[in-house]
From TrEMBL:
The EC number(s) this enzyme carries: 2.4.2.1
UniProt protein name: Purine nucleoside phosphorylase
Keyword tags: Glycosyltransferase, Purine salvage, Transferase
Pathway membership: Purine metabolism; purine nucleoside salvage
Nucleoside phosphorylase domain: residues covered: 10-254
Subunit and interaction comment: Homohexamer. Dimer of a homotrimer.
UniProt-annotated binding residues for substrate: 196, 220-222
Residues the record marks as site: Important for substrate specificity: 178, 233
Residues that bind phosphate: 17, 57-58, 197
Keyword Glycosyltransferase set for record: yes
Function: Purine nucleoside phosphorylase involved in purine salvage.
GO molecular function: S-methyl-5-thioadenosine phosphorylase activity
Length: 282
């Protein structure tokens, strides 16, 4: 384990614990933040010459349910080691029969149905270290990085995994799965997939000027899209395990093709242009 100052990265991956074991020569870095501790240490390594920081979203051993993840600390910790682009893969339920288990969908829109998660760094509330953030209302019409989406889609195609390009991810509070009525409603609204972790990760990344892209892996058909028993956790884990290797390959390829940090010129980089947040970013 090394001090945070000695480790740097420019790409962050927030995902399940199946990923960091594949980074070679991992350096474990413990980072504290003004918002408390992130889900776990950061694991720094290299993929195709890019410095990558991996953060297990649920902590090692998966002890944090989606609603107890400290999303603010996670994004802040990544930024503080130099990360400017983040890939956040997550497992989701399909809301249409054609989005069955094994589908890879790279959403371009998001609906937030979480209920009790802190969604902003700029809430006007004085931090424990005395910093006084302003109240900020950020544009969020397009929640995902267009460059990151391109890299993710190209990486999937390169691995013969025909991805769904675009769609709406609805994020629910959990930890329970949806009722049939909720699921039918989500589908009737035209939304594509449902998950529990993609938000507020996306908006907090934007608030820090980070590029954020999510890749969703469908592990089950959500309750309304399925005639049978509804979702059960065992099936979700099974489908995830069956696809984790190729998802990892896609992520690695995407990392390799993301724009160099210095070349970024997307909406994410300019999200805070002209806005006085009162907070110095790490
Ligand atoms: Zn971007």
């Amino acid at each position: 384990m090394v001090n945070a100052e000695t480790g740097t990265a420019d790409i962050g991956v927030i995902g399940g614990s199946g990923f960091y074991s594949f980074l070679e020569d991992v350096t474990e870095v413990q980072v504290d933040t003004p918002y408390g501790a992130p889900s776990d240490s950061l694991f720094l390594g290299e993929i195709a010459g890019r410095r990558v920081a991996f953060l297990p979203r649920h902590g090692r051993g998966h002890h944090l349910p989606p609603h107890r993840i400290n999303y603010r600390a996670n994004l802040w910790a990544l930024r503080s080691v130099g990360v400017r682009q983040v890939l956040g893969p997550c497992a989701v339920g399909g809301l249409r029969p054609e989005y069955g288990p094994g589908t890879l969908l790279v959403p371009d829109q998001l609906v937030d149905r979480t209920k009790a998660r802190t969604q902003t760094y700029y809430d006007g509330e004085t931090r424990s270290d005395g910093v006084e953030p302003n109240v900020v209302h950020l544009g969020f019409a397009d929640p995902y990085c267009p460059e990151g989406r391109k890299a993710a889609l190209a990486a999937a195609r390169g691995r013969d995994w025909d991805p769904v390009d675009g769609g709406t991810l609805v994020v629910v509070e959990g930890p329970r799965f949806s009722t049939r009525a909720e699921s039918r409603w989500h589908a009737a609204m035209g939304w594509s997939v449902v998950g529990m972790t993609g938000h507020p990760e996306a908006v907090l990344a934007r608030e820090l000027g980070l590029c954020y892209t999510t890749l969703t892996l469908v592990t089950d058909l959500d309750a309304g899209a399925e005639a049978g028993e509804g979702v059960n956790h065992g099936d979700v884990l099974k489908v995830f395990a069956a696809n984790v290797d190729r998802l990892r390959s896609v992520l690695f390829d995407a990392v390799a093709t993301l724009p160099a940090t210095a070349d970024r010129d997307c909406i994410c980089v300019h999200a805070l242009d002209g806005i006085h947040t009162g907070v110095d970013l790490p």
